[in-house]
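Researcher: We are triaging several targets before committing to wet-lab work. For this one, the compound of interest is LTPLIIQW. I'm pasting the protein sequence and the ligand SMILES. What I need is the predicted three-dimensional arrangement of the protein with the ligand bound, expressed as structure tokens, so it can go straight into our comparison scripts without reformatting.
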Amino acid sequence: MATANHNLSNYDKSTLPNAEHFRFGIVVSEWNDTITNGLFQGAYDALIDCGANEDNIIKWNVPGSFELIYGAKKMIEHRVDAVIAIGSVIQGETKHFDFVCEGVTQGIKDLNVISDTPVIFCVLTDNTMQQSLDRSGGKLGNKGTEAAIAAIKMAHLRRTF
Ligand SMILES: Nc1c(NC[C@H](O)[C@H](O)[C@H](O)CO)[nH]c(=O)[nH]c1=O
Ligand SMILES: CC(=O)[C@@H](O)COP(=O)(O)O
């Protein structure tokens, strides 16, 4: 398994663009907020560590991961260089998991196609709460950190080309 016992969230900021002049929007789902708050903290801490100014980080909450699509669309209108969409979808008893995951995946993909602002997909789609805990600041790192690094790289690409 790709992530078995590997923390994939380490980064070398000397290899990254400085984020001091970038504006970031972070849209956070309130479903499974223990997980999404951990993802947000990882993302926020990484952005600050890489030079971002706290005044240039806008955070909005939305009810669930499906609302990340609309929230990110509205965030794009606030002149940010990149948006990070943070959610945690955990399998329940029914197929609702499949539809939420597919819907938010396709919706965020569509925003990357139709808008000029990169939207980073930071939505955990896990079978269990433990899998989510492991990936939001646990033994397998923090996908929020990884999303922040992706946001910095894409913000730089957007400004450069
Ligand atoms: N079950 C989870 C949901 N479900 C709610 C949807 O995201 C959406 O808010 C609702 O269908 C109304 O449009 N959302 C999550 O983020 N995580 C879940 O595990
Ligand atoms: C991903 C979901 O919407 C899921 O948590 C809802 O649970 P259930 O499928 O048992 O209704």
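Researcher: Any quick observations?
Model: The chain has a mean pLDDT of 96.
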